[in-house]
Structures are given as structure tokens and as C-alpha cells.
Design brief:
eight-stranded parallel barrel; alpha+beta
């Protein structure tokens, strides 16, 4: 079997030593497929098939995982040999860089850029602004309600310790032969002689640890056998270190109320001392209280969902045919009956869904009234990020109130009751999910939210441009902004929003910048910041190219409405001051075995290219990969079930797409094509799992689709 030396052009590059050692020889044909695949050995590397004289601007790109590319082994060698440009699927995305507190780590981004540029490749930036793969915990924290300023005089005292000595117990103490007694609800301290203040001390130690930096107050009624003054202080009993002196406590021979204050300035302050050694005589103390002040801890419940069942509404979920509304609630009202006479195989087989979607780090409370035909139990579950249990609801044959709580750490969807394995009848009433919200807070105004998110965008884009140092010269400025529904009022699709999603992102991590910044401003702001910080980071502003990237631009089912909408939205953004250089069409396509469906798809792809060409923008096929389906909207055929004939049809379709791009897109508008699936997708992949999307198979052997790319590029 002939073998291809994939690194022959890189022998002089010392940084390739690890790849040379391990992958000097790279097998391109699959030894298990036999002669059918031998012809692929005669093919050269993919990028050699680009006619540079005819298509001088064309760049063949490959999508590579940053972690594997940065190892500078097989994936690196393959990319350097076959492509002009590299893009990584996730490493440049917001959630990969920004943590829950907004701290950014660009180490992987820097390594990827260094390695690509060092190998003579063009790194492509994917992506600056997107709604998916966001750090929703951090971004939503910027939108959180703000606490109201509270007048300190209105703060509520919270007692650390208080006594009126009515129990006859005095405070502790030591030193100077003084005595402490309680008579008629008053503590009497008798200090026989005058000495240093600390030589006689009255101690109050309850186990409470005073908080460093917090203000504390000491209040008492006090008088003496003569006018005088004592002092008070906080102390760490482990090392006797002072942790804050109170103001002097002055008194006369008449009762007076005294309040003094200090700010704790040490750790492990557990002891409050009265220093009485400097006063000789009797001191009388009553109503002794130590406290701090805090804003009123007022909360109000915010219902996520509530079912009283009097309105005829029931939750959905698995086994919903077993749910009904009946009379017989605990107060004679309506309630829900779940009739499950025999236990199901799984708890989730009968599963009322309470809510779909919740925020992270919020304490959700679930309350209900419940009884059963027999004693038993059922569970509560929620998705965060996998399915987690949140306790059991124990059921008796009498009505009882149940309260549970969960605090998910990730934004996910669904809180459910899992009743499938309870055999019998369940009656449930007054079912609700809620959280408690501070009544001392108010929502940010739209202007305040916009200001906060604008700053977050500024930090992000500035950080990314600084990390890449002007060496990443082409970017997806905005990814997937166009919805597949709605109307902008001018016949175009509306943009994606929280209330108009295309449901293509991972549940729970979507954050729509346009919801806060506006449909126009979020692009204009991003474009201005990208150009500003690219130049400040050392980039040549004439070289920076910013694309809007989206999927389904080749859609045949709506007459290419999405690509038309894309072109029109770009006009709106440019009319508002943005400069958009190019359009990326993802083209996650499938070859359709139904000839009529495939013909419609091909007609629509040609139409898309014509519309894109007419836009005058640079055009990039940004994420080209391919599955195979029996017919339109059918389920993808898995790799192991694809026949040789079908593999060849897929190769021919790849060839056709490449040739149509080169034929229809004018040379001056050609940016290039990105091979999004290098290899077939693994069975456990989150993207087109188990499908034959690659130019190489899972073991990096060339496939017929490799020939399809090469033949399309060469014009064969």
C-alpha cells in the first residue's frame, strides 16, 4: 500500500519535531476497504488543488479542536499539510474563556494563534458575539436587581447578646479582687482599688465570632458610686490580640443610657471585655446588649408556577393521560388526581413537569399539599446539568403539606415530580414553585442593563484582540443572529431572541446580547470595538475582515428567505454605522437519497450563492459538513450503514458544492471554504453523532469525500 508523507514540506520547521517523530508517515487509505480505496493514494494534499492563479484570494480552511492542534501531533500535521486557514470550534467562544466572575483566561487562544501563525497558517476567529455557549451565570449577574440604599438609622438591630440580669446571673470576669453580684436585676461591680484598666475585666464570651470589618454597638444602663469612665474592647481569646476598642463609657452617679461603637479589626474575636481596673468603687449595670445593625431582611415570594387546579389547568409531562382535575381538595376545592394503579418501570414514566427553565444559584422552593390512597413516596428531580434528585415526598392517606428546596448550580430546564413507581392514586393541591426575592432591591433600568452589558462586551472583545495581537485578521463578528421565524416588519425573519429562539443552542447557556443592547446596536457596538481594539493590539486595520455567520442560508423550504433576511439585516446595520465585510454560510447539509428533494436542495444552494454574490460582500462557506438522509428532514444514516454507492454520492455532492461556489461567487468576493468535519463524527459526539460527515474516517484514512473536495477544487 502506498503511503503519503504528510510533512514533507515542513522538514525544515524545527517546531514540528514532535509531529515528525510520530507522524512522519501518515496512512491515507483504509486497509480494511481494499482496492476500492486505493485510488485515493494518488491524491495530493487538499490545498494543492486550489488554482492560485485563477482564485488568488481563496483559502481552504479546516476546523480543528484547539486542544489537539496545540499538541502539535497528528491533527496539527494534517492541518498544516492540507489547509491554508484553521478555525477552532470552541476555544474562541465566550464560555471557554470567561469564568463565573467575569475573569478571562486566554491561554488556549494564545497557544492556538501562536501555533497556527508559526506553521504559516491563517487563524480564523470564531466567534466574538453569539447567544450560545455563553457564561450565563456571569452575564445574568450583571443584569441582577440592585439593592436600594438604606438609611442607616432605619437599619434593624440584631442582637449578639443581651441580658437584663433578671435571671440573677452576672457576667464573668477576673482580676484585682473585684466582685460581681446581681441584686434586684442589676449587676453590681465592686472594684476595691485603682490600677491599670486591664487589671480588672468583666468578660462577655458567648461563642459568637465578631466579623472582621463589621460595626458593633454596646448598649447599657449604667451609674457609679462616683463619676468615672471605663473602656470596652473586642479580643481574640487565643492570643489576647485586641480586635477593636469601643468608645469610652462615661457615667455619673445617676442612671443613664449609654451606647458606644467599634469596628472589629481582627480575626476570631470571640470576647468582649469591660476594662474596669482604673475605677475604684461600685459600678451598676442593667440592660446590657451587644448588637449590630443590618438592613431589613425583607423578602417577597416570586412564583415561577402555581397550580390551584380551580382554573382547569394541569401540568404536562410523561404519562399526562393519568392526570385529571377532581373535587376533593383539602379545603373542598379542586385538586389534581394522578391515577397510577400499578408501578411503572421507571419513576420518570409518570412525571408532571413543573417548570421548564430556571436560573443558576437561586434557591427554588417547591410546596404542595398531597395525600395518597396508600402510604408511600415519590421523588423530585431537576436537570443541573444531569438529572439530580431533590428529595422525596412522603405520602400518607391524610392531607399533608410538603416543602422542598433546590439550588441548581447551572442554568438548565425542567423541575419534575417522578411518581411512576408510586402505585395508587395521588391527590395534589396548591402546587407551586417559587423563590424569594429581596424587597430592598429594584430591577436595573434598561439604560443600566445596557451600560453593564456594553462594558462586558468591551472587556471581552478587547481581551480577545489583545490575546491574538492583531494576528487573527478575520472573525465571525456575530454568529447566528437571524431567526427562522418572526418578522422584522419589512418581510425579513426577526433576529433570534430569548422569546424567538431557533432552539439550536445547548439548553440553558443561551444569552441574547440583542435582548439588552437592541437589534441594531449590538452589532454596531461589536463592530466598532473589534476594529478599535484590533488596531490597538497591533493589527493593520486595512487587513481586518468581519463576517456575519449563520446556518440554513441554503434553505429551500422557505424560498431562501433566511439568506435574503441576512443581506437585508446587514444593510440595516451598515445604515446605522457598522462596516460588515463578509457573510459566512455554514452549510451543514445532507445528501438526500430522494431525487426530488435533492434537486430542490441543489437549486436552493445555487440561488443562495447568487444572492450572496449580489450582496457584494466577501463570501465564506464557513462550516461545510454533510450527512446523508433518505429524504428531506429525515433522520441521518449512521456511518456504519452507509453503502459504497452512497459514499460516492456524498463525494459528488461535495464536489458540486465546491464547484458552484467557485463558479458563482466572483473571484474578488471569494474568501474560501472551511472543511468543518475533518473526520466522521464519533458515536458519542454532541454534533451529528455517528454520522459520516468527514473527509477522513474516524481513523484519519481518506474517504471518497476527500476526492470530492479535491476534484471540486481542481475543476476536474
Amino acid at each position: 500500500m502506498k503511503k503519503i508523507h504528510v510533512l514533507y514540506a515542513l522538514a525544515a520547521m524545527t517546531m514540528m519535531s514532535c509531529a515528525d517523530d510520530k507522524y512522519e508517515v501518515f496512512t491515507t487509505a483504509n486497509p480494511n476497504q481494499g482496492e476500492e480505496y486505493e485510488y485515493l493514494n494518488s491524491y495530493d494534499h487538499l490545498k494543492t488543488y486550489v488554482d492560485r492563479a485563477k482564485y488568488p484570494n481563496f483559502k481552504l480552511a479546516g476546523a480543528v479542536p484547539a486542544s489537539e492542534f496545540n499538541q502539535k501531533q497528528l491533527v496539527y500535521a494534517l492541518a498544516v499539510s492540507n489547509f491554508d486557514e484553521v478555525v477552532t470550534g470552541n476555544a474562541f467562544k465566550y464560555a471557554s474563556v470567561v469564568d463565573d466572575k467575569g475573569v478571562m483566561n486566554f491561554s488556549t487562544v494564545k497557544d492556538f494563534t501562536d501555533n497556527a501563525v508559526g506553521a504559516g497558517l491563517l487563524p480564523y476567529g470564531h466567534t466574538l458575539v453569539w447567544h450560545s455557549q455563553q457564561n450565563i451565570k456571569y452575564l445574568t449577574s450583571l443584569m441582577a436587581d440592585k439593592e436600594l440604599d438604606v438609611d442607616p438609622d432605619d437599619n434593624i438591630p440584631t442582637n449578639v447578646f443581651t441580658t437584663d440580669f433578671s435571671d440573677g446571673v452576672s457576667l464573668g470576669g477576673w482580676g484585682n479582687d473585684h466582685t460581681r453580684t446581681v441584686e434586684n436585676g442589676v449587676m453590681i461591680i465592686n472594684n476595691p482599688k485603682q490600677a491599670n484598666p486591664w487589671e480588672a475585666q468583666v468578660n462577655c464570651e458567648t461563642g459568637y465570632v465578631y466579623e472582621n470589618g463589621k460595626e458593633y454597638f454596646l448598649k447599657m444602663r449604667i451609674k457609679g458610686s462616683a463619676e468615672g469612665s471605663i473602656s470596652a474592647a473586642l479580643q481574640n481569646p487565643d492570643n489576647y490580640a485586641g480586635c477593636g476598642d469601643f468608645e469610652p463609657i462615661n457615667f455619673t452617679t445617676d442612671w443613664k443610657d449609654v451606647t458606644v461603637r467599634t469596628i472589629c479589626n481582627g480575626d476570631n474575636a470571640k470576647r468582649l471585655l469591660l476594662n474596669i481596673g482604673a475605677f475604684a468603687g461600685e459600678i451598676y449595670i442593667d440592660d446590657y446588649t451587644v448588637y449590630y445593625k443590618s438592613a431589613p431582611a425583607i423578602t417577597i415570594p416570586v412564583n415561577m408556577v402555581e397550580y390551584t387546579f380551580d382554573d382547569g389547568k394541569l401540568p404536562g409531562g410523561n404519562g399526562a393521560d393519568k392526570f385529571s382535575i377532581v373535587d376533593g381538595g383539602p379545603d373542598g376545592s379542586k385538586c389534581m388526581l394522578i391515577d397510577n394503579p400499578s408501578a411503572a418501570a421507571n419513576p420518570w414514566d409518570v412525571q408532571p413537569q413543573l417548570i421548564a427553565g430556571y436560573a443558576p444559584d437561586v434557591a427554588y422552593k417547591i410546596s404542595m399539599k398531597v395525600k395518597g390512597s396508600v402510604a408511600g413516596s415519590f421523588g423530585l428531580s431537576y436537570e443541573s446539568p444531569g438529572w439530580s434528585g431533590a428529595g422525596n415526598v412522603n405520602v400518607t392517606t391524610d392531607w399533608k403539606e410538603v416543602n422542598l428546596s433546590i439550588t441548581p448550580t447551572d442554568a438548565r430546564s425542567n423541575i419534575n415530580l417522578n411518581v411512576g413507581q408510586y402505585a395508587g392514586q395521588l391527590w395534589i393541591d396548591d402546587l407551586k414553585v417559587y423563590y424569594e426575592k429581596s424587597a430592598n432591591s429594584i430591577p436595573l433600568t434598561p439604560e443600566e442593563k445596557k451600560e453593564a452589558l456594553t462594558q462586558a462586551m468591551d472587556n471581552w472583545i478587547k481581551g480577545m484582540m489583545n490575546a491574538t495581537e492583531g494576528r487573527v485578521k478575520a472573525w465571525d463578528l456575530v454568529n447566528e443572529p437571524i431567526g427562522g421565524a418572526g418578522d422584522d416588519g419589512q418581510g425579513n425573519y426577526a433576529l433570534q431572541h430569548a422569546d424567538n429562539p431557533d432552539d439550536n443552542g445547548v439548553k440553558g447557556d443561551n444569552f441574547y446580547w440583542q435582548d439588552i443592547l437592541g437589534d441594531i446596536d449590538f452589532v454596531v457596538l461589536a463592530e466598532k470595538k473589534a476594529r478599535k481594539y484590533f488596531e490597538e493590539a497591533g493589527g493593520n486595520p486595512e487587513e481586518l475582515k468581519l463576517f456575519i455567520n449563520d446556518y440554513n442560508l441554503e434553505s429551500w423550504w422557505d424560498g431562501n428567505k433566511k439568506v435574503k433576511s441576512m443581506v437585508n439585516w446587514i444593510k440595516k446595520w451598515e445604515n446605522a454605522g457598522a462596516k460588515i465585510d463578509g457573510i459566512g454560510t455554514q452549510m451543514h447539509v445532507s445528501f438526500m437519497l430522494d431525487e426530488n428533494d435533492q434537486k430542490r436542495q441543489e437549486e436552493s444552494i445555487e440561488n443562495m450563492f447568487r444572492i450572496l454574490a449580489a450582496s457584494g460582500k466577501l463570501i465564506r462557506v464557513s462550516e461545510l459538513d454533510m450527512g446523508i438522509v433518505p429524504k428531506a428532514f429525515g433522520e441521518g444514516i449512521k456511518t456504519e450503514n452507509v453503502t459504497e454507492e452512497q459514499h460516492h454520492k456524498m463525494a459528488a455532492f461535495y464536489k458540486w458544492i465546491v464547484q458552484k461556489y467557485l463558479e458563482i461567487i466572483p473571484v474578488e468576493q471569494q474568501w474560501g471554504i472551511c472543511v468543518w468535519g475533518l473526520t466522521d463524527s464519533p458515536a458519542n459526539s454532541g454534533w451529528r453523532a455517528g454520522e459520516p460527515i468527514g473527509a477522513w474516517d474516524i481513523n484519519y484514512h481518506r474517504k471518497h469525500t476527500y476526492a470530492g473536495y479535491a476534484d471540486g477544487l481542481s475543476g476536474k
